[in-house]
Amino acid sequence: MQDENNIQTDYSEVTEKDNPAKPIVKGNSQIKQKVLFLIVILNIIMFIGLILLYVLFFTTKKSEIIKMTPVYQKAGNKPMSLVYVNIDSLNAKYEFVKVLKNDLESTGKKLQAEILSEQNAFEKEAADFQKQVANNAIPEAKAKIIYEALMEKQQTIGEKKDRYTQEVANKELNMNLRLLDTVTNFLKRYNRKFNYDYILGMKTAGEILIANDTLDITKDVLNKLNTEYSERKK
Questions:
Q1: Secondary structure of 121-144 as H, E, C letters
Q2: Tell me, what's the pLDDT at 52?
Q3: Backbone angles phi, psi at 48, to 5 degrees
Q4: How does 197-206 read in b/e, with b if 16+ C-beta sit within 10 Å?
Q5: Does 82-233 carry CATH code 3.40.50.2300?
Q6: pLDDT for position 63
Q7: Confidence (pTM)
Q8: Can you give the pLDDT at residue 207?
Q9: Within 10 A of 97 (CB to CB), how many other CB atoms are there?
Q10: What residue segments make up the domains of the chain, in order of their start?
């Protein structure tokens, strides 16, 4: 009997050591709690990160707007008034421009016709000379004199052509300066009524690429310019 009791006791001890059920269940519960805690911490970190991104994004946009604002303000935070005139429209519809352009084109055509007439006469004379030389119709000494005269005439025509080209270019420059002076003086008088801070000029391939149509005063300026020009002509 004693041996049986000893055997039973030993068996129970072995069973308790080999099968520790309760500590395993307790260990799993602790691991689950740690995982849940870690998930909660990660969620909190992500939430804080989203808040920081939100704050940084809207703070940056606000600072950019604040930096841009002074560009459109005068001293003392007063709003700046800015308008523009379409230069292409002025060149196409201002009557004074049409007159200046017609005058320039007329001068250019007149000088060009003169050069062409002299050039055609020279070419005809040179062609006749070549025929005479080919047919031995003139002595060598005379041919030499005619040749030198033709070269001198050709040089004279070339110099005149360059001079006329420069003359037309100078006339065009003076025309543009005269036009600019006329428009600028008009805008100074025009702005006495409106007191704009800036009146800009917009044109094709100019520095201003896009502008709000509500700032365009071209139509009013053009009408008044043409009215003044018509009155001066009377």
A1: HHHHHHHHHHHHHHCCCCCHHHHH
A2: 60
A3: -65, -40
A4: eebebbeeee
A5: no
A6: 41
A7: 0.59
A8: 87
A9: 19
A10: 2-72, 82-233
